[in-house]
Amino acid sequence: MTENSSRSTPEGAGEAGGTDDRSGEVTATYKVTGMTCGHCEGAVSSELGELAGVSSVQAVAASGLVTVTSKAPLDEEAVRAAVDEAGYELVGQAG
Fold first, then answer.
1. pLDDT in tens, 8-43
2. Is the sign of the CA dihedral 75, 77, 78, 79 positive or negative?
3. SS3 per-residue string spanning the chain
4. What is the pTM of this model?
5. Do 34 and 40 touch, CB atoms closer than 8 A?
6. CA quadruple 34, 37, 43, 49: dihedral positive or negative?
7. Which residues, 6+ apart, have CB-to-CB distance to 8 below 8 Å?
8. Which of 22, 11, 35, 9 lies closest to 72 in space, CA to CA?
9. Which of 32, 34, 36, 61 is buried most deeply by CB count within 10 Å?
């Protein structure tokens, strides 16, 4: 019955080379301070999602990390302004 377990491996797509689904897109992770809850995550995600070229945003209050996928690298000052508009502080790129 091990045949079924070998088929359930699509979760491995979360590794660093995850550009297969969105060819040509760039993923960057930022450290943001001040987020404490789901509302905070939503506020940051909403503001960053309005930047030109952004296709997805995932904010995690517990870690303070925000992962942004976009069509091209984002200008850090634009990211900083969006995070500031949401009421939080961009520390910089994580990693």
1. 333 333 333 334 355 789 999 999 999 999 999 999
2. positive
3. CHHHHHHCCHHHHHCCCCCCCCCCCEEEEEEEECCCCHHHHHHHHHHHHCCCCEEEEEEECCCCEEEEEECCCCCHHHHHHHHHHHCCEEEEECC
4. 0.75
5. yes
6. positive
7. none
8. 22
9. 32
